[in-house]
Amino acid sequence: MSSVFRLIRRCAFGLALFAALPAHAGNFGDVLRYLFVSHPAGSLVTVIDTRDDRIAGTLDVGLVPLQLEGSGDLAKLVAIDGRSPRVNLVELTGGRLASVALDFVPQRIVVSPNGLKAVAIAPEEGVFALVDLLFAVPLGPTRHHPQLHDLLFDRSGQVLHIADAEGIERFDTGTGRALGRIGPAGAVLRLDSSASGRHLYARTADGTIHSVALDPSAGTAGPGALAAGEGVARAYTNATGTRLFLPDSARRRISIVSPLTLRTEAVLPAAAGLGHVYSAWFDTVAFVASAEGPAVLVFDQEHAVRGADIPLSGVGGRGTVTPDGRKFYLPVADGHSLAVIDAEGRRLAKYIVLDAPPRAALMAVTFGICH
């Protein structure tokens, strides 16, 4: 089944559940419905019901989250604070909290595509540790990897790709053995997955984006590499894998690139201070928050043109798109609020006023790949 049909089926399923499932007090396990907003000064996470865009309650994650991620398959939140040697797991169905003790302080977490594992990372120390999210236990000892820059799971969660000063090392998460190197030689700073999971996109220190085949069925040749420039930090894919987006704050532009050939199809004017790229509404529109304005920049994917900006009351943080692609949520710390953007209408629908400044907004399941 093609990725387009899988996406349509998932959207239809999500819409049906949104309409059919009742709410239960204190139970936020419907991962297609509830959104979670973290705050920089407290352990309470605000829960938003995306059916009516109202506050549904709170969850205590047991620490002030520097980073908050979700596992849709397990209906759990995963949190670190960047100050203590632990990873906290919170069950969305009842709020039960479990803490996984580590022997280092993680600065970042990456969740596997199947939601069963996470890797906790301290890049400056050159260490990482695997965590079983189902049983809330470490998977083996802390691993030392000098000059570690980034980590990315394959789509099965069995292989971990490690970006370092020499390229990309493959690591078997089951046996703990190194599996050899793939991709470009030299320092790799960032790894991002393709929509299918058959390729990854590696950004090297010289600003080049490389496409690296992971699945033998994807072919060994691949489309090669693109000299994106030092202003491009990473490549973003849309949900169906038909386009890549390369935001460049330094040159105030965004490039739309073919994943099949890595050829640039369009270069559109943007702004400074560009954030993440969020694809929505059946991959017909892409949103990019900009500190300049501040605003959300709107890009029409089908016609490769920039639409009308959506002004914001403050600078946007990390946001999310609902699983059906209908709504884009963006936290605005200056306004103590969460912006709700109608993706189909490409307009600001409302602000949800919060009790505290927000840091990030996420759903355990989202449209396409989580950012």
UniProtKB/TrEMBL annotation:
Q: Source organism lineage?
A: Bacteria, Pseudomonadati, Pseudomonadota, Betaproteobacteria, Rhodocyclales
Know the name of this protein? DNA-binding beta-propeller fold protein YncE
What keywords is this UniProt entry annotated with? Answer: Signal
Organism of this sequence = Pseudothauera rhizosphaerae
Q: Which InterPro entries match?
A: Host-pathogen_enzymatic-act, Quino_amine_DH_bsu, WD40/YVTN_repeat-like_dom_sf
Keyword Iron-sulfur carried by entry: no
Signal sequence annotation: 1-25
Q: Which SUPFAM superfamilies match?
A: YVTN repeat-like/Quinoprotein amine dehydrogenase (SSF50969)
> Does the UniProt entry include the keyword Transport?
no
This protein's source sits in the domain of life called Bacteria
